[in-house]
Amino acid sequence: EQPTENFVAAKPASYYAELYMKDGLKGGHVIKLGEGNDEAAIEALQAYPQGMQIGGGINPDNCMKFLDAGASHVIVSSYIFKDAKLDIPSLEKMRDTVQRHRLVLDLSCRKKDDTYFVVIDRWQTFTDTVVDEDTLQTLAQYCDEFLVHGVDREGLMAGMEDELISILGQFSPIPVTYAGGATTIADLDRVKVLGYGKVDLTIGSSLDIFGGSIPYDAVVSWQRKEEEMAQPPQAGGDTGGMGGFGGFGRTYS
Q1: Which of 55, 115, 166, 238 lies at a C-alpha separation of 20 to 30 Å from 123?
Q2: Helix count (H) and strand count (E) of the chain?
Q3: What is the mean pLDDT of residues 60-88?
Q4: What pLDDT score does 236 carry?
Q5: Pairing, β 176-179 against β 145-149
Q6: Hey, how many other C-beta atoms are within 10 angstroms of the C-beta on 114?
Q7: How far is CA 136 from the centre of its chain?
């Protein structure tokens, strides 16, 4: 099954990296889809040093090239699975190569029999790994963050996986970013509620800069307001009960 192209940018990846740097948006994702993307990916990483994460075919043999180019983290998925089963020796090798604080595990998943299973190989292969409390607690020992696409909603602008967001908010002991199906600016607040204030949101296809309808500038403004509310109170002041929600509008892809 071949992926469908929803939008092809006329500008290079480095343009968007520079835009995110200008607007102070850290933690965006550079995802290499297929072969022949290394040069463009490295240009984006160099445009925003330590501001972007990179994924797509990452393994112990090639990861340092991207970290040396400026990636803050590498995102890993298929490498840590063998025959669709989680392979702990591969996971340990990946962690030991880059160190835990620079590793993001991609647990993108699809629902089967009312259960979310991690999928790999461009999301075509189901693994036996379930996205639940036990998995999140176990894998959190190896990485700095999780990235989880709701694959059945990804790129379709068809609504988010509410149940999955709630699972991530309830059970992930480390930072976690959800992607897939956001369609309006109001979804930023919905994720904050569904994820118990603990889940970040990536918006890609729905942004106007990527052919969607959500104004990029409006999302940046939302993020700034969240950061302001998360600032510690001045002497004698108070935060109105909203402190701690800054950074949950991760809006870049």
Answers
A1: 166
A2: 8, 12
A3: 97
A4: 46
A5: parallel
A6: 6
A7: 15
